[in-house]
Amino acid sequence: MPLSFTAKRRGKPPRHFADLAPEEVREVVEALGEKPYRAKQLATHYYAHLTRDPEGMTDLPAATRDVLAENLFPQLLTAARTMEADGGTTVKTLWHLFDAAKVESVLMRYPRRTTLCVSSQAGCGMACPFCATGQLGLTRNLSTAEIVEQVRSASKSLADGDIPGGPTRLNNLVFMGMGEPLANYKAVIGTVRRLVAPAPDGFGMSARNVTVSTVGLVPAMRKLTAEGIPVTLALSLHAPDDELRSELVPVNTKWSVDEALDAAREYFEATGRRVSIEYALIKDMNDHAWRADLLGEKLNARGKGWVHVNPIPLNPTPGSIWTASDRDVEDEFVARLRAHGTPTTVRDTRGSDIDGACGQLAAEEDE
């Protein structure tokens, strides 16, 4: 299956406040004839009050807020469809972007935490055959602001008490929605910087509560290592042997299992952050006990205490030949990994009854 690393030509998203560094916002504000301190007021409204609505910016004169909003807060995302599960505590949203591209995000509220899964690309160019998004192909990269707007919208819903359980904050952010995050490196790292920046220049989240996933783009993994921002790195491995992984994750033909694991180990050494290995368990494909043993051996060959494995029961897509492993096979796979001393936790798969696999709603709209 061919890989597509470049997006189809589309228009560039309009400039948005979240695309700009604080000094760039000040420059825009001054160019519009306003005092530079307005930039800090805007940042407080956006990142602390979670609003882009000029009507809520009552500390700014009416004329001023309208001009600033028109120039800095264009509508980037429009909710086209939402689906709920788990008593309304799991909410999946299909967003239409300014150019009719489609992305999805999933907000999940648990008893003691909240997690948002965001998309970094419309579609995906990695062509993994078991992935709904991978079968869509790549439409384009998202801008920083298009990703940040997914975060702000979810944070606002939580703060306003729209999700059952009363008002709360967003605790965790995972780049595990549509797209390969490290193939859109600039926008993703720009989003990470806004997530972890203290108020009023960002959401003030802990880097430890941000997870960036990758199918194993080794040069970009090393670039992320050099950033020195201790987010959690999640490597979507799905097979410990090159022969099968090259079928399941075509990018493996460029960077092998061992190269990806070496880069992941380097990330741990540089940041001290334990790496997550994501492993979608696919019936009769990659769920053999000997593959669990091989994975445990490969991880142990690179040391102890640096990694955690998350086997994930596959969320099947309609009409797909790919399906989740039987429970007894899953249990044996987990037992084999733990026998190697590998910390292993089966991932909770929420939203299976609302087309939980990213890309399914977008694919349905295109049918």
From TrEMBL:
Top class in the EC scheme: transferase
Chain ranges of the Radical SAM core domain: 110-353
Cofactor(s) needed: [4Fe-4S] cluster
Enzyme Commission designation: 2.1.1.192
Signal peptide: none
Binding positions for S-adenosyl-L-methionine per the UniProt entry: G179, E180, S213, S236, L237, H238, N315
A biological process term (GO) from this entry: methylation
Reaction(s) catalysed by this chain's protein: adenosine(37) in tRNA + 2 reduced [2Fe-2S]-[ferredoxin] + 2 S-adenosyl-L-methionine = 2-methyladenosine(37) in tRNA + 5'-deoxyadenosine + L-methionine + 2 oxidized [2Fe-2S]-[ferredoxin] + S-adenosyl-L-homocysteine; adenosine(2503) in 23S rRNA + 2 reduced [2Fe-2S]-[ferredoxin] + 2 S-adenosyl-L-methionine = 2-methyladenosine(2503) in 23S rRNA + 5'-deoxyadenosine + L-methionine + 2 oxidized [2Fe-2S]-[ferredoxin] + S-adenosyl-L-homocysteine
CDD domains, per the entry: Radical_SAM
Localization per record: Cytoplasm
Gene Ontology MF, one: methyltransferase activity
Active site per UniProt: E104, C358
Annotated keywords: 4Fe-4S, Cytoplasm, Disulfide bond, Iron, Iron-sulfur, Metal-binding, Methyltransferase, rRNA processing, S-adenosyl-L-methionine, Transferase, tRNA processing
Annotated [4Fe-4S] cluster binding sites: C124, C128, C131
UniProt cofactor note: Binds 1 [4Fe-4S] cluster. The cluster is coordinated with 3 cysteines and an exchangeable S-adenosyl-L-methionine.
Note: Reaction proceeds by a ping-pong mechanism involving intermediate methylation of a conserved cysteine residue.
Protein family (similarity comment): Belongs to the radical SAM superfamily. RlmN family.
Described purpose of this protein according to its UniProt entry: Specifically methylates position 2 of adenine 2503 in 23S rRNA and position 2 of adenine 37 in tRNAs.
PANTHER family: 23S RRNA METHYLTRANSFERASE (PTHR30544), RADICAL SAM CORE DOMAIN-CONTAINING PROTEIN (PTHR30544:SF5)
Name of the molecule in the record: Probable dual-specificity RNA methyltransferase RlmN
Classification lineage: Bacteria, Bacillati, Actinomycetota, Actinomycetes, Micrococcales
